[in-house]
């Protein structure tokens, strides 16, 4: 059976219920976060918590759960579902009130939900994937991890219909991000990605990959880049917490360079995998058999 942490209690997923007047249900008035857990250890936990707390601040929802409490919730969920690797999903809405009104009453009690689901960290080589270029029709505060994801979902469905794993979104020819990922290109050994402004979600994986690149002597530029630059790039890849680094070989049917996984992408994939939390070896004490 699957379990959910809902407003302070662990309940079977099938019994988890919220009000029909929850503002998340009525208005998508809420935010979310996704944290990968490798061998029981949340990866880049503080960075994920910082982004979660910032999203809450930006939409003026009070922070309902402290970082320390989140770690306890993870442990409680683990006790019900002992997964080696997992994805923690956190969903927070402004709360419920009747009657429906766009303007929220002050001091609503946020609705908080968390789940753990199985996660298989990528291993081995990954075949370069297809992406589909499309216009970014989303709102202008993509830096907030809002649960209002209709624009992302429409783009994902269109990409799937095109045989792609992800849309590659642009605004007036400027590449923004994917529907649930950030994009990078490599040109003349320089790693380039869109700046962390309001047009993209500041991906935790994006930030980690930038740090790994700098540490490994790869030049990095965080700056707007165009669709023309994308098509002229030597390499292209996307990043996300659950997919890590995925090489992109084709965008809307057009090869990026020779369509293969390039050397810098390959190097960063290796660095990333080496940086993932490893299983903690249990030390046997002398008096243990
Ligand atoms: N952009 C968007 C729109 C996303 O939904 C995600 C995934 N949450 C990302 C980028 C990648 O972010 P992260 O590396 O933190 O998973």
Helix and strand topology:
Layout: E1 3-6, E2 9-12, H1 23-27, E3 30-38, E4 41-42, H2 45-59, H3 67-80, E5 86-93, E6 111-118, E7 129-135, H4 150-161, E8 166-171, E9 174-175, E10 182-187, E11 190-193, H5 204-215, E12 219-222, H6 227-231, E13 235-240, E14 244-251, E15 254-255, H7 263-275
Parallel strand pairs: 7-8, 7-14, 11-12
Antiparallel strand pairs: 1-2, 1-6, 3-4, 3-5, 5-6, 8-9, 10-11, 10-13, 13-14, 14-15
The protein binds 4'-deoxy-4'-aminopyridoxal-5'-phosphate.
4'-deoxy-4'-aminopyridoxal-5'-phosphate binds next to helix 5 and strand 13.
Structural class: alpha+beta
CATH-defined architecture of the largest domain: Alpha-Beta Barrel
Radius of gyration: 20 Å
Order of helices and strands: EEHEEHHEEEHEEEEHEHEEEH
CATH class of the largest domain: Alpha Beta
Distinct small molecules: 4'-deoxy-4'-aminopyridoxal-5'-phosphate
Number of helices: 7
State the fourth-level CATH superfamily of the largest domain.
D-amino Acid Aminotransferase, subunit A, domain 2
Uncertain segments are none
EC number: 4.1.3.38
InterPro entries: Aminotrans_IV, Aminotransferase-like, BCAT-like_C, BCAT-like_N, Class-IV_PLP-Dep_Aminotrnsfr
Protein name: Aminodeoxychorismate lyase
Keywords: Aminotransferase, Folate biosynthesis, Pyridoxal phosphate, Transferase
